Amino acid sequence: MITSIEELQELAQMKKSHNENNPKEPTIDMSCDFYTKQTRIVLENEGIIDPEDIEDYITHGGYMSLFKVLDEMSPKDVIEEIKISGLRGRGGGGYPTGLKWESVSKVQSEQKYIICNGDEGDPGAFMDRAVMESDPHKVLEGMAIAGFACGANKGYIYIRAEYPIAVKRLTRAIKQATRLGILGANIAQSGFGFNIEIRLGAGAYVCGEGTALIASIEGGRGHPRQKPPHLSDHGLWGSPTLLNNVETFANIAPIIKNGGAWFKTIGTKNSSGTKVFALSGLIKNTGLVEVPMGTTLRELVYDIGGGVENGRKFKAIQSGGPSGGCIPEELLDLRVDYESLKEVDSMMGSGGLIVMDDSSNMVEIARFFMDFCASESCGKCTPCRVGTTQLTQLLDKFIAKEATMHDFVLLKEMCLVVKSTSLCGLGQTAPNPVLSTIRYFEDEYLAGIKDD
Amino acid sequence: MSTATDDRYKALEKAIKKLGYEKSSLLEVLNSAQGIFGYLGIDTLKFIAKRLQLPYSKVYGVATFYNNFKLKPKGRHNIVVCTGTACHIKGSEKILQKIEQRYGIKAGGTTSDEALSLLTARCVGTCSVAPVIVFDEQIKANVSLENPLCDIEESIK
Ligand SMILES: Cc1cc2nc3c(=O)[nH]c(=O)nc-3n(C[C@H](O)[C@H](O)[C@H](O)COP(=O)(O)O)c2cc1C
Ligand code: SF4
Ligand code: FES
């Protein structure tokens, strides 16, 4: 049992001197370009600590932020610090985290919940998986701090069932932390208690959406509902609920440790901190990278990613998954943050970046995402249920080179209808890949129109 | 076999009891049931409905909503072809076609001798080594488009 910050420091010190006497071989060579261009906050412990050993986490400063919060800060102070940091939600929308916490903390209620969104449904993204697998305690620590700030004593982590290792490590981490009294009732005799449970998804993309995720935890179909009421008023089992993404929670302990002002100095004016991206597709170096917000796409693709594979020509980079867009070569100097990506009809999304070369057909890519949305649509509202299927069929006509000019007009119009009349984010963003490829690769659509 | 004597139903009953017969534990119960039986048969769903005191329609509705729940038995082995974006860009369609042709089944199907089920997934989270297939829970990275089954065909019996 650890009951005070001094005991935590003592344990860290003891372990540290033990480690110094028994040095481990470093597992990663950090001196190549792939690493020197990166700034690691979220992934600072990846490959460095043993994710199955809580003491290793503590040796590297783990749970110090939680104890600091319990020792010397009020919930208000914590929220203020997060607000100063300028941290925005890493789940895609980019909503300011401090404001979200504040609205949950202000609601009066006996019972409140903290939920960590580990659904990570975007095909081509695996950042959250890496965080949960390589540093599970960091997620728990962020959630516990959020619980303290918002006045919640119970947390859930919703993970997709496709991530068995993440489930195993988090389960183990929760057990270890509970055994040491870092989770549970009356943590460090502060009067604050916090418990965390894991809930498994069962393979439905729409369950990443907040209200659908809650319906799923409650044991039903993952159908989204109209907002308001927002989750901060009416969330899990009707109680005020805070929902944040895995990576958002992983940023909390470092912010408390180093201060919000420190975090604010990293990144751009409106998007502070770093972002973890999953680089994949037709690129030499694939994998996870963590860079300051405002890094250009060119740096990501060429300096870190090593350029396009097999000496082929770069054509586009896809960001934001099924709600995002394809960004062409002439925009590679774009400094990546929430706003700049929106301006070019794409989205930060969860952080998947997929590089395509000149062998990729953009209409076909747009169809790929539309088909994804059509099969993942929950079917609750008509524009999305019917519209995404209709759009897929229209795109098929372009691919078969049998479309007419009328189809092209219809395609654009239908995109706007689906976007503006769907109930939840899935339908509202489903047309984005089509719209962005029309904007930058219109000639490929025109090539699909038959002469008559 | 009746539900009273089948050991698998005893195991399921135990799992439901552990979850406190809570209606809200339906997803967990379905997950356990699938772990025990390998799939969710109609009898199993009816059993669950009764134990949780839920309408059968609700249980059936939830079981059919989620992609991971299978209502038909699976083969002795299974191959999951990832069709997520990164794998798609790297040619996962071709892999799927090759396997479909080789065994004469479509994605979602099982061979008539029940040796193999073929499934697809929307990203298994290892995009940096795309294209990826999962053979009996084991991830195979950088799969060859020409000969995707080279080292596993032997074990499919
Ligand atoms: C269709 C859909 C899927 C989503 N999938 C995810 C997801 O997999 N992971 C995630 O963190 N957020 C996802 N989101 C966003 C969440 O609804 C929510 O905004 C987010 O988890 C809030 O956390 P944040 O403020 O920390 O970003 C999704 C949204 C929609 C509309
Ligand atoms: S937009 Fe699509 S996913 Fe969202 S509620 Fe409507 S049908 Fe369901
Ligand atoms: S897209 Fe296949 S593993 Fe991610």
TrEMBL record, chain A:
Domain of life: Bacteria
Presence of the UniProt keyword Iron in the record: yes
Keywords from the UniProt entry: 4Fe-4S, Iron, Iron-sulfur, Metal-binding
Domain NADH-ubiquinone oxidoreductase 51kDa subunit iron-sulphur binding residue range list: 363-408
PROSITE patterns cross-referenced by the UniProt entry: COMPLEX1_51K_2
SMART domains membership: NADH_4Fe-4S (SM00928)
GO MF, one annotated term: metal ion binding
SUPFAM superfamilies listed in its UniProt record: Nqo1 FMN-binding domain-like, Nqo1 middle domain-like, Nqo1C-terminal domain-like
Protein family according to the UniProt entry: Belongs to the complex I 51 kDa subunit family.
Protein name: NADH-ubiquinone oxidoreductase 51kDa subunit iron-sulphur binding domain-containing protein
Automatic annotation (TrEMBL), chain B:
Single Gene Ontology MF annotation: oxidoreductase activity
Pfam families to which the protein is assigned, alphabetical: 2Fe-2S_thioredx
Keyword Iron in annotation: yes
Residues binding [2Fe-2S] cluster: C82, C87, C123, C127
Keywords: 2Fe-2S, Iron, Iron-sulfur, Metal-binding
Cofactor: record remark: Binds 1 [2Fe-2S] cluster.
InterPro entries, sorted: NADP_DH_HndA-like, NuoE-like, NuoE_dom, NuoE_N, Thioredoxin-like_sf
Coiled coil: none
CDD domains documented for this protein: TRX_Fd_NuoE
Cofactor requirements of the protein: [2Fe-2S] cluster
The UniProt record lists the keyword Iron: yes
PANTHER family on file: NADH-QUINONE OXIDOREDUCTASE, E SUBUNIT, POTENTIAL NAD-REDUCING HYDROGENASE SUBUNIT
Family: Belongs to the complex I 24 kDa subunit family.
Protein name in UniProt: NADH dehydrogenase
Organism taxonomic ancestry: Bacteria, Pseudomonadati, Campylobacterota, Epsilonproteobacteria, Campylobacterales
